[in-house]
Amino acid sequence: MSITDILSPSDIAAALRDCQAPDSFSPKKFFQISGMSKKSSSQLKEIFRILDNDQSGFIEEDELKYFLQRFECGARVLTSSETKTLLAAADHDGDGKIGAEEFQELVQS
């Protein structure tokens, strides 16, 4: 399954355009513009599986920097600051990685 089976390509493009400049990525805004915040729990779990590049069941910090590239291969990498902010916003149990439930909570909050 591809991310565009769940999210519209035009919404993804708009979300990526909004955060082209380094340090301009806002998770909440990205989730809203891309349409992720309106998706069902099962759809968000599928998006999580796509974003979990190594299929470990978690999105680790090293995977997070490539977050935008999972939506479009030519997108920029997140800066160190953006990566840490995204991790801190989602990692509720403090284990240094984002689980599927933490991801869903972040997107839907």
Automatic annotation (TrEMBL):
Binding-site residues for Ca(2+) 2, renumbered to this chain: 91, 93, 95, 97, 102
InterPro entries: EF-hand-dom_pair, EF_Hand_1_Ca_BS, EF_hand_dom, Parvalbumin
Pfam families: EF-hand_7
Source species, domain of life: Eukaryota
Positions of the EF-hand domain: 39-74, 78-109
Annotated SUPFAM superfamilies: EF-hand
GO MF annotations in UniProt: calcium ion binding
Sorted UniProt keywords: Calcium, Metal-binding, Repeat
Keyword Calcium among UniProt keywords: yes
Protein residues bound to Ca(2+) 1: 52, 54, 56, 58, 63
Any one of the GO CC terms: cytoplasm
Purpose: In muscle, parvalbumin is thought to be involved in relaxation after contraction. It binds two calcium ions.
Family that this chain belongs to: Belongs to the parvalbumin family.
PANTHER family: ONCOMODULIN-2-RELATED, PARVALBUMIN ALPHA
Name of the protein described by the UniProt record: Parvalbumin
Organism: Dromaius novaehollandiae
Gene: LOC112992843
